Amino acid sequence: VSSEELAKSYLARITSLNPSLNAFITIDEEKSLAEAKAADALRAAGNAGLLTGVPLAHKDIFVAEGWRSTCGSKILSNFVSPYDATVVAKCKTAGMVNLGKLNCDEFAMGSSNENSAFGAVKNPWDLTAVPGGSSGGSAAAVAARLVPVATGTDTGGSIRQPASFCGITGIKPTYGVVSRYGMVAYASSFDQGGPMAQTAEDCALLLNVMSGFDELDSTSLEREVEDYASDLNTPLNGLRIGLPKEYFADGLDNEVASAVLAAVEEYKKLGATVVEVSLPKTRMAIPTYYILAPAEASSNLSRFDGVRYGHRAAEYTDLVDMYEKSRTEGFGAEVKRRILTGAYVLSHGYYDAYYLKAQKVRRLIAEDFQKVFEVCDVIMGPAAPTAAFDLGSHTNDPLQMYLEDVYTLSPNLAGLPAMSVPAGFTSNGRPIGLQIVGNYFAEAKMLGVAHQYQ
Ligand code: GLN
């Protein structure tokens, strides 16, 4: 088939299923078909790459030239980007066809996709369940096969937790592997883009396109180009799997625990050995993250002031009143909560007690991982303590929502690569995710580990 025919068939599926899933915020058939024609031209000229003509969609945190780029927020609901994020540009150069912008929690803050100004996303496996967040639109779109692959971002689990809730595969690479240029900043020292797909193999191919040094991102890593698909079939004989005892403690759902342990048994059959390890500061991950990420967010989100772009209040008395009204009207409740928390922990008198202390604990959490990687090659555990929960069940309790992130936050605090791989279902048919965490730059190895289980 031509790239255009392929794009058309996916667009038809999006048109019929998106109204019930709400995975897309913006669809623009004309723009998508223009990209598909460009892909066909590349193919006709003999310049096609591996992914030329393959459709994808981007989490609406990535800006894309000429596309409305909202971050799931009312404050950017009419913002059309004049430029492409590096990730978007790279996918375009590879000839991939952008089918639209995917729903997400506002500014990527959330674990259920219920914090979007464009409405909640439904889990395709059960329309009464959340898809996870914040990349819930990406996970739902891939799971419902509205797109073969999608981009996501992961600041504290936002690729892995929705991947686990929707039964797909997603990887957050080592911090610095994927450029953050044009990926609207939430907590800059944590934010990392990554691929979401049905399989580890597809994730590897998309990561090959998304990754690479970018001089437009000062934290982008300058490394030799790597082929993330190179280890997909490297035998797992002798692989040492670390099981942290803290990952199988209180609060973990029984069905999730058994599915994860059953997956580990499969790995033993593939030649792996299991070592019990300890990550004693696991319980510190939630307080540490929920101090540091809001601190960075309060600074990053100060740029939304109604002056340069985004929503501006219709009436105001002076400049300060304009800032206040625009931000009051434009931001949702969770974003305001984070800005307030962040401003508080950074303020004079509380900085040492909260922000500085959390920075120190962050370092200790990273050191714990390095000790563990002396005795194992990968760490396995649950991606989340439960399977997808019911829509609306956590919305009045922010703390309960934050507890969903207990297993996903530590790799972001340490900058380590981590992924979620489908590992079965609960008795009521909701997917369960196995989390695999590797040492810095172990992406290719981890993708191979996931591939051979799939
Ligand atoms: N759930 C976490 C939060 O709300 C993680 C979000 C993310 O990774 N973007 O901050």
TrEMBL record:
<dbReference type="InterPro" id="IPR036928">
    <property type="entry name" value="AS_sf"/>
</dbReference>
<dbReference type="InterPro" id="IPR020556">
    <property type="entry name" value="Amidase_CS"/>
</dbReference>
<keyword id="KW-0648">Protein biosynthesis</keyword>
<protein>
    <recommendedName>
        <fullName>Glutamyl-tRNA(Gln) amidotransferase subunit A</fullName>
        <ecNumber>6.3.5.7</ecNumber>
    </recommendedName>
</protein>
<keyword id="KW-0436">Ligase</keyword>
<feature type="domain" description="Amidase">
    <location>
        <begin position="5"/>
        <end position="447"/>
    </location>
</feature>
<dbReference type="InterPro" id="IPR004412">
    <property type="entry name" value="GatA"/>
</dbReference>
<keyword id="KW-0547">Nucleotide-binding</keyword>
<feature type="active site" description="Charge relay system">
    <location>
        <position position="59"/>
    </location>
</feature>
<feature type="active site" description="Acyl-ester intermediate">
    <location>
        <position position="158"/>
    </location>
</feature>
<dbReference type="InterPro" id="IPR023631">
    <property type="entry name" value="Amidase_dom"/>
</dbReference>
<dbReference type="Pfam" id="PF01425">
    <property type="entry name" value="Amidase"/>
</dbReference>
<keyword id="KW-0067">ATP-binding</keyword>
<comment type="function">
    <text>Allows the formation of correctly charged Gln-tRNA(Gln) through the transamidation of misacylated Glu-tRNA(Gln) in organisms which lack glutaminyl-tRNA synthetase. The reaction takes place in the presence of glutamine and ATP through an activated gamma-phospho-Glu-tRNA(Gln).</text>
</comment>
<comment type="subunit">
    <text>Heterotrimer of A, B and C subunits.</text>
</comment>
<dbReference type="InterPro" id="IPR000120">
    <property type="entry name" value="Amidase"/>
</dbReference>
<comment type="similarity">
    <text>Belongs to the amidase family. GatA subfamily.</text>
</comment>
<feature type="active site" description="Charge relay system">
    <location>
        <position position="134"/>
    </location>
</feature>
